[in-house]
Fold these 2 entries.
Entry 1:
Amino acid sequence: MKSDKKRIELLDELRGLAILAMIVHHTFYDIGFVLGLDWGYKVFDKLCVLQPVFWSIFIIISGICSRLSRNTVKRGAIVLGAGLAVTLVTAVIMPKMGITGAEIYFGILSCLGSCMIITGLLMPLIEKVKPAVGMLVSALLFAVGYGISSGTLLFGLVKLPHNWYTTNLFMPLGIYSSSFESADYFALIPWFFMFLFGAFLGKFARDGAFPAWTYKKHAKALSFVGRNSLWFYLAHQPVIYAVMYAVMLIIVQIYK
């Protein structure tokens, strides 16, 4: 998209909605983690049933935008760098401060950044594939790869060898040992195929073939969040932590 007149506003709004839903979800986890209130964990667990919906929205939209970006590989490198920074903060710096249990290895940013780089490098090949065929194959590969982190394929129909899961070296692919833990984790298998689904769908977006109403703005707040989704993701946990610790200090002062 070369101008705002052709910008697909609905993509920004849906991405903004997905980011806000994620922030709300993480807030309940932090209520349990920081404030030590069990009901926060309980609400977080119940909301997990909705997670795949918002994950799918966010990843598919990112895939669509990879078809609209002037330099998908460069954009991917920036996002991957942000993901590595999140790992550095949560897995190295925070533990040194005595804050453990929030380590993130290959979270959503690392996954999306990797997907962008791979898709950007494969773009000459992707351009030769008919969008409908690419979307179908991507959906099938997603179905095949789903469950790989639990040692299965095809939604549990195929069992994988147990000895594959004795190391964390292949953690980015969804294969890891029982010792692996991450507060946020998105493996390339199967999520790359969902991203690729979006990339093929993005051909219609690039050609201006989306319905006319998708180009109109419906919710300015959601659009703003969607356009700045990377910054909202990077800032939301520090902000939530700061608020939670401030609340905790106030409570301690009150009951001193």
Entry 2:
Amino acid sequence: MSKILVLNGPNLNLLGLREPDIYGTTTLQELENNLSANAPSGIALAFFQSNHEGQMIDRIHRVMDEPVDGIVINPGAWTHTSVALRDALSAVAAPFVEVHISNVHAREPFRHHSHLSNIALAVIVGCGMQGYTFALETLNQRLKS
């Protein structure tokens, strides 16, 4: 059984409420339930969301003691600001896929740069909640090869 850690950064606890015209009406709990119900065979999922950068970094560090086979991360605003998050992901050396619900490249210019993209296995933007499914499929294919 392969284990994938699904991480969601700041404000993603407000999915379904926050700017539904951008992020849709699906809640974080609904997203997690859907991913669990439809995960590829042989994949176990663990979830974590935080609005606190240090807590997210601590959770990523735990991968060193509690290994996972891959990470799906929607870093939210930390995408554009956090070298510390990048360093944590580099340190644990688990392959990860960066996911953004909206097309960040069609939004404000400050959202166009990611500190994570060039170390990610893949980056999925603008596919809505389906982006998480694409990320799981990408990691699953990597694990099979």
